[in-house]
Amino acid sequence: MIRTALLEDLDAIAALHTRARATYYRGRIPEQAYAGEAELARSREGWSRAVRRTEAEGRVFCAERDGEITGVAAYLTADGETTLTQLHVDPVHWRRGTGAALHAACVAAWRRAGVERVRLEVYEHNLRAQAFYASHGWRPDPSAVPSGSHRTLWLEVGEASGE
User: Which residues form a coiled coil (predicted)?
Assistant: First the structure.
């Protein structure tokens, strides 16, 4: 089930976010940048701000199975640009359609809002995520300058895979 995130989901979302990030950052950046109590608190605060957004500013969706949050996605619309800021699936739930369902919920919300184009940044070493996004229609902007350790991808919502 995909649903809008609630404030009472924050602890579960922050913990899931930390587990997911550890899978692609481990061994590449210092652990304190993605794990530990301070990072968990920072993550929870960021998710708290995201969950409190108005619908016009963006949304946070949770994937839930048997009462457990198994994935989360968030986007932000600011200054006329929409950005998919987060899409994480708990690693124990990979390859079960959770990411695709969250992506479809985002695409449906963007279409309802009349959004035509969305951007995201993906960690350059996260090849799993890059393959996922490519399979859903996200493409690199050939004119984009690389953004540090992240790649910028764009989705034309009208051409997006909503499923």
Answer: none
Write the single-letter amino acid at 64: E
Alpha-carbon distance of 140 to 117, in angstroms, equals: 13
The token pair that represents 146 in the structure block: 């690389």
By the 10 Å C-beta count (0-12 exposed, 13-18 middle, 19+ buried), 13 is classed as buried
Domain 2-156 classification at class level: alpha beta
Q: What percent helix, strand, coil does the chain show, rounded to 5?
A: 40, 30, 30
CA dihedral (146, 147, 148, 153) in degrees, to 10, reads: -80
The domain locations on the chain are 2-156
| Amino acid letter for position 21 | R
Using one digit for the tens of pLDDT, what is the confidence trace for 79-124?
A: 999 999 999 999 888 788 999 999 999 999 999 999 999 999 988 8
